[in-house]
Amino acid sequence: TSVELEALLHIVTKSLVEFFSYYQAVIFIAREGESDLRLSAHAGVEAIQPQRDAVAAQERDIISAAYAENRPILLNYAAASPLQARLFEQAAAELAVPIMLERSPVGVIYVVGLERDAFDEKDLHLLKVISEELSLLIKDAAEFSKLRKKNQRSEIMHKIGQVTIQTFDLKQFLADIVHLIHDEFGYYHVAFHTYEKRSEQLELAAYAGEEKPFSPIGEKHSILNGIMGLVIRSGQMYCANDISKEPEERETLLQTKSFL
To answer: Strand 54-55 vs strand 220-222: parallel, antiparallel, or unpaired?
Structure first.
């Protein structure tokens, strides 16, 4: 599972530091639908400078270059290279190896040495072997997650059928459905909007989640505005995994990072 994978990544970085005497060992993983690399595991005495949990795809350093170019990069004199990552003040040598999954990068293993020429072909081979093993584990975790979601969908459809049989109150039915989806899948917010074709208006019929929507239940608004209106007009699904890249006029909850 993803939780077990995260624990394993920490074991890998800790082992690289303890058994192979690397000054620092870091693993970055790209989350599905995102271009930035997220810090997933780190071992070593020195804290990452500056404090951050991601490496942006547009940054040009050894980590992002290894990821973008799908190749290992070795800097045995890091200070002389424009690709120096500058994550650790005492880094003299740096080595980054991409983690590949079906010919596409999904992460990077990054290690640091305290002296120049700290790394050689043996280190490169070691990290390549580890990256290959990690790619298999990441694949297994992803397939397990897909299977679990598939089973969840089957179960939730069964429960929806049960709710349909047990209730004839439309408002209560919609409320039951959004709470069922929210609880089963752990989504931050779930809402059900009904569409009245004659007036071309959407009405918030039910919602579930910690944060209240901007509009109260029963309030109507035109389909000419907002993401829901866009979906109605186009008749197509709309998915945004990075809401910061979306047009500002589309309404969202305050804590929203992505929506579907």
So the answer is: unpaired
Strands 201-209 and 37-44: unpaired
Collect the ranges in the chain with pLDDT lower than 50. 165, 167, 248-249
Taking the model in full, what pTM does it have? 0.56
The number of C-alpha atoms within 13 Å of 103 and in the hemisphere containing its C-beta is: 0
The number of angstroms, rounded, from the C-alpha of 252 to the middle of its chain's C-alpha atoms is: 19
- Helices 170-185 and 121-166 pack at an angle, to 10 degrees, of 160
What is the rounded distance in angstroms from the CA atom of residue 112 to the CA atom of residue 94? 5
CB-CB contact of 243 with 256 (8 Å): yes
Q: Provide the pLDDT for residue 91.
A: 92
- SS3 for the chain, per residue? CHHHHHHHHHHHHHHHHHHHCCCEEEEEEECCCCCCEEEEEEEECCCCCCCCCEECCCCCCHHHHHHHHCCCEEECCHHHCCCCCCCCCCCCEEEEEEEEECCEEEEEEEEEECCCCCCCHHHHHHHHHHHHHHHHHHHHHHHHHHHHHHHHHHHHHHHHHHHHHHCCCHHHHHHHHHHHHHHHHCCCEEEEEEEECCCCEEEEEEEEECCCCCCCCCCEEECCCHHHHHHHHHCCCCCECCHHHCCCCCCCCCCCCCEC
pLDDT at 13: 93
The predicted pLDDT at position 249 comes to 46
